Amino acid sequence: MAGPLLAWYGENKRTLPWRGTRDPYQVWVSEVMLQQTRVAAVIPYYQRWMEELPTVQALAETNSERLMKLWQGLGYYSRARNLQKAARTLVSDYQGRFPESLRELLKLPGVGDYTAGAIASIAFGLPVPAVDGNVLRVTARVAAVRENILDPAVRKKFQRWMEEAVSQEHPGEYNQALMDLGATVCLPNGAPDCGRCPLASICEANRLGIQDALPVRAQKPSRRTEELTVYLLLRDGKIALRRRPDQGLLAGLWEFPHVSGVLEEEEAAVPVGSWGLAPLDWRKKIEAKHIFTHVEWRMTGYLLAVKGNCADFLWADREELDRLAVPSAFAKYLAEAREILAACPERA
Ligand code: SF4
Description:
By secondary structure, the protein is an alpha+beta fold. 45% of the residues lie in helices and 16% in strands.
């Protein structure tokens, strides 16, 4: 399958900012950003990142606020933290260079089979596979595999098949060709364009007409719902933020203070008092929701002026609001806060 695939890739590869590079740092950052995120969304993040953090050393040395800010909006923030952890390991243990072996790459924080395979094959020309969702889909269809691709044992099987199938001469191109084929031709959700596919003549799913049924994925567990009351607390032209704990969901990012449950205005005043603040003026109620993989937040927010102080809060002006990393779960509240601080900073 390598011949037709590589020929197709030569004529149809996507033009992407990280395409053509053999710099392991650039390959690594692009591949990590692309996990769980669409290519079009990644491009501006990647370009901004490379302008600000062009080397492993620069990434190792940047502060966490800057790191989170560069990642803000991409989600799954542990990816950014792991990038920095790994960069620091590369600087301390490998003189800032990437090890040219799959086994050593796999020891880096946050680097799994896929990322290690991508770096090893694209940057160092090692004949190893890089099996992501696109590759799983194409392979499951070509071989008409009816097993559940979310099952770790089945994924291991795919990994072994791909270790045998990968091109020995052009492993990086081969892996990228499969990724591009999955992203542009062998599309998910019953939309493969088999007429344009270089593998159509050897594809079992195409022969049997069962492309739409593959790959098989077991049902995902259902998502739970959490209700929150969020506070936009205004004082002297500034707005209250607090830092999330260093562990868990959205660790270390800045958020608007909030409590569990949906509270009506009267009840909502109670937490405000417990923070040592006194409500002066309830200005607005703002509803929002945000969906994570396993949980959905349904938020009721209040914009209110207060007096007093709370040691846990940072009172941010517009500039600080722009500088600090606030997760996109709070995007609606962030927009509101920006607007209110811009409209009447002296009265807010
Ligand atoms: S022939 Fe169709 S189903 Fe088979 S790999 Fe190509 S696009 Fe996918």
